[in-house]
Design a protein that fits this description.
By secondary structure, the chain is mostly helical. It folds into 2 domains: 228 residues, Citrate Synthase, domain 1, CATH 1.10.580.10; 104 residues, Cytochrome P450-Terp, domain 2 (Cytochrome p450-Terp, domain 2), CATH 1.10.230. It contains 17 helices and 3 strands. It has a 3-stranded antiparallel beta sheet with strand order 1-2-3. Strand 1 and strand 2 form a beta hairpin. Helix 10 runs antiparallel to helix 11 and helix 15 runs antiparallel to helix 16. It is globular, with a radius of gyration of 22 Å.
Length: 387
């Protein structure tokens, strides 16, 4: 029998460094992040999220007429049915009016619920999947907002047809119309999070789609994968870490350096740093930090302190560990100064990444072969049951 050592000459856990398929949607490398030929910094500077969503889902840069029609269609699809509102009230409310379920679990349930009322749920044709993708893209901000309002014991607001996608998301979550700057920063963050090739949640979507399961089922799998703190939940954990540092400083226990030395000594996992692919820094992190800092500086010292702390943490991590921040680190600070509830950071990720997921699900179905890798057996040698 081949031994485990012979069968496994190198560490392949997590499929590290392995290419497992082709895609026309996104390219991730050490120097660039590209969506269908367009580099992320170019998109963040010059495209709206609606344009990026069209690019990913339809496959090309929209014309003026195409973008107008696409935007109008999304606005028309934002409303959610009364039955789903009842479900959201049952699961999103805090005790004793509900279990206060995790916002990502709420979102997963909502997507599953909606699929039962789609006339073409089981239709995996390109036309049907594009329509379903647009419906999910339009409704997810409404779901997030409704769930957050119920969570806070407030009356939910209806989507505002006069607001763009990013601004409407903020309106639904907070009940307040965002400033032009805040809406722009949200729009940029959605663009930065929209797509990232075969990451854990996207790969999950593709594995499910490869069995010829339906789009909603694959998206529910993606949401479940993104929920984990090692993936989408990292932006929430990064902000919680900054809160811990601030409390440490305020209590007089020490400064940022003292906290970081303590964290290193205790071998704490510091969220928002490092990346499986990027070894020289995440292209998206600097873009989002610069936009978030604009909001913090406009708000004053109480907001800017989070970026001051964050910059010091980043400096220490680079000097001591040679580890760069990923996009989740500035995201935590940026969303916090925007007044977004921390539990909604990862659902907002879904409001963006739904475009990439659906694009990959459609691509998988178009050129499908079931994804079924092999495993290296590392168990006992062959033995007799009656021996």
């Amino acid at each position: 029998m081949t031994t485990a050592t012979e069968a496994k000459p190198q560490d392949s856990r997590g499929l590290a460094g392995q290419t497992i398929g082709d895609t026309d949607i996104c390219s991730v490398n050490q120097t660039q992040l590209i969506y269908r030929g367009y580099e992320i910094a170019d998109l963040a500077a010059h495209a709206t999220f609606e344009e990026v969503a069209f690019l990913l889902l339809v496959g090309h840069k929209p014309s003026t007429m195409e973008l107008a029609a696409f935007t109008d269609e999304l606005v028309s699809l934002r409303a959610i049915p009364d039955g789903l509102k009842t479900v959201l009230r049952d699961i999103a409310g805090n005790p004793p009016h509900g279990p206060g379920a995790h916002p990502m679990s709420i979102l997963r349930t909502a997507v599953s619920y909606l699929s039962h009322f789609e006339p073409d749920t089981e239709d995996n044709s390109p036309e049907s999947e594009l329509h379903k993708s647009k419906r999910l893209l339009a409704r997810i901000p409404t779901i997030i907002g409704y769930g957050q309002m119920v969570r806070e014991g407030r009356d939910p607001v209806e989507p505002d047809p006069n607001l763009g996608h990013a601004a409407n998301l903020l309106w639904c979550m907070t009940g307040q119309k965002p400033s032009e700057l805040v809406a722009k920063v949200m729009d940029v963050s959605l663009t930065l999070y929209a797509e990232h090739d075969f990451n854990a949640s996207t790969f999950t979507c593709r594995v499910i789609a490869s069995t010829e399961s339906d789009l909603a089922g694959a998206v529910c799998g993606g949401i479940s994968a993104l929920k984990g703190p090692l993936h989408g939940g990292a932006n929430e954990m990064a902000m919680e870490m900054l809160k811990d540092i601030d409390a440490f400083i305020t209590s007089g226990e020490g400064d940022v350096r003292a906290f970081m030395d303590m964290a290193f000594a205790e071998k704490r996992k510091l969220m928002g740093f490092g990346h499986r692919v990027y070894k020289n820094g995440d292209h998206r992190a600097g873009i989002l930090r610069s936009w978030g800092l604009k909001i913090a500086e406009a708000q004053g010292p109480d907001s800017k302190k989070w970026f001051d702390i964050g910059d010091e943490v980043q400096r220490i991590m680079l000097e001591d560990k040679n580890i760069h921040p990923n996009v989740d680190f500035p995201c935590g600070m940026t969303y916090f100064v925007m007044g977004i509830p921390v539990p909604q950071y990862t659902p907002i990720f879904v409001a963006s990444r739904i475009t990439g997921w659906c694009a990959h699900i459609m691509e998988q179905h178009e050129h499908n072969r079931i994804i079924r890798p092999l495993a290296n057996y590392a168990g006992p040698e062959l033995r007799e049951w009656n021996g």
